[in-house]
Amino acid sequence: xxxxxxxxxxxxxxxxxxxxxxxxxxxxxxxxxxxxxxxxxxxxxxxxxxxxxxxxxxxxxxxxxxxxxxxxxxxxxxxxxxxxxxxxxxxxxxxxxxxxxxxxxxxxxxxxxxxxxxxxxxxxxxxxxxxxxxxxxxxxxxxxxxxxxxxxxxxxxxxxxxxxxxxxxxxxxxxxxxxxxxxxxxxxxxxx
Length: 192
Description:
Strand order of the largest sheet: 1-3-2
Helix content: 40-55%
CATH topology of the largest domain: Arc Repressor Mutant, subunit A
Low-confidence stretches: 172-192
Order of helices and strands: HEHEEHEHHEEH
Strand content: 5-15%
CATH superfamily of the largest domain: Winged helix-like DNA-binding domain superfamily/Winged helix DNA-binding domain
CATH class of the largest domain: Mainly Alpha
Number of strands: 6
Oligomer: single chain
CATH architecture of the largest domain: Orthogonal Bundle
Number of helices: 6
Distance between the termini: 72 Å
Number of domains: 2
Shape: rod-shaped
Mean pLDDT: 80
């Protein structure tokens, strides 16, 4: 009889130990997941709301696959969106931290200030050196501004002439003139 009680006691202790170990593993997994999510949010804030899995640092001893899985889960829960960059990387966009609209307005104002200081003639190389845009991004931005009617092309394919009225008003909205539309171009997205 004592042998049976000891055996039952050992079985009960073993079961309790397995329950405690299982709960501890679940807590460790939950803490690791929370650590990954904190690192993702920190990276999104630091990088203007646009990150890749490689941008997530300080996530402990976690692999890229775990970070990608966490990013996909956050996307499925509606916390972020994803897009594919020109070089095929998946970029995750956190709208709460996305600074693209402010950046677009700031870059447009910089280009219009350049146009004002040069009498309306802006060269692509000037935009690329005076702003954070690359030469290719400056070309896309000036072409978009051309399509929006803010400037016109010249005989030189790398130069654009800005209209005096747009340069004088600093690139604000057309609501000041009564039309209520914005002639601001879309700025190429930053891939940090």
